[in-house]
Design brief:
This protein is mostly beta strands. The protein is built from one helix and 26 strands.
Length: 283
């Protein structure tokens, strides 16, 4: 037979009162309390809640015992709310009254953004995405070198280094451009109440040309500019099409168009023809 003393009975009624109180608080806000539990029975006097307690409409966190516990969605309609009680972190689970949970909070007021795309037949196509109102995030973008133009979903925003504020929480297409450098692209996620950090190292929009000749010692002209004599590697050459011309006394001129690619060394190998032969040589 199980015996209950007065102390055991008192603890039991206190526990019942606490559960009823929590259910009443959240019930008045329109949410439905599913269940709750404590992370630990340990006692720590420094328990702080960033959203002020049981607030399922705002994503917050609890700092306790040198750890941070964030509110989070357990499903598309349920939220796990962190809060402080008895100097320890607790977790309560709720059904969102709106039927939507996003990024650790129940969605309440919402707004609809519409994107219009014109096809070649000028027929307007629209797609709508429902996003939380007043729950935005930030994006900090830096680059080496600085001064790159920042585009989000094809729209110019600023030059690096910069912080872009007030972004709706979703995935964005990020592109950085700078003259003389290869475009840098990535997909980035923005979360409400948070700042995402991106650091891009831009690659020079340059390549090289390795020019050799038989015999060597021929004068090199790159786009009609003298660059020395063969054999030689020309570096830091802008990408694209260039004209190479080689000349050497007693030999016909050698010309060739060569395409330079980023971080690639293009090859030009010339066999010069003596002038006692017929014609001049074009590669």
């Amino acid at each position: 037979m199980v015996e209950f003393n007065n102390k055991t009975i008192s603890y039991f009624f206190v526990g019942v009162l606490v559960v009823l109180a929590v259910g009443y608080i959240m019930g008045s806000g329109g949410g439905k309390l599913i269940s709750g539990y404590s992370i630990s029975n340990q006692t720590n006097t420094t328990c702080t809640d960033s959203d002020g307690g049981l607030n399922y409409n705002l994503k917050g966190n609890v700092y306790w015992n040198n750890l941070t516990y964030w509110d989070y969605c357990t499903s598309s309609i349920n939220v796990a709310e962190r809060y402080c009680s008895n100097s320890a972190v607790q977790t309560a689970y709720y059904n969102c009254p709106s039927g939507n949970c996003y990024d650790g909070a129940c969605m309440t007021n919402t707004t609809t953004t519409t994107t219009t795309v014109l096809t070649t037949s000028t027929t307007a196509l629209t797609s709508s995405t429902t996003l939380p109102l007043n729950q935005t995030g930030n994006l900090y973008v830096s680059s080496k070198p600085t001064g790159a133009s920042v585009y989000l979903d094809g729209v110019y925003k600023a030059k690096t280094n910069t912080t872009i504020k007030g972004l709706a929480p979703k995935s964005y297409s990020l592109k950085l451009t700078k003259s003389g450098y290869v475009d840098w692209t990535a997909s980035v996620w923005i979360y409400s109440g948070q700042t995402n950090y991106v650091n891009a190292i831009l690659q020079p929009n340059k390549g090289s040309i390795n020019i050799t000749s038989i015999p060597k010692g021929a004068n090199i002209y790159l786009d009609n500019l003298y660059k020395g004599t063969t054999n030689r590697i020309l570096t830091n050459i802008a990408t694209g099409l260039h004209n190479i011309k080689l000349n050497k006394t007693g030999y016909y001129d050698y010309t060739k168009n060569v395409t330079v690619y980023v971080n690639i060394t293009s090859q030009v190998s010339a066999l010069l023809i003596p002038k006692n032969s017929t014609g001049n040589l074009t590669g």
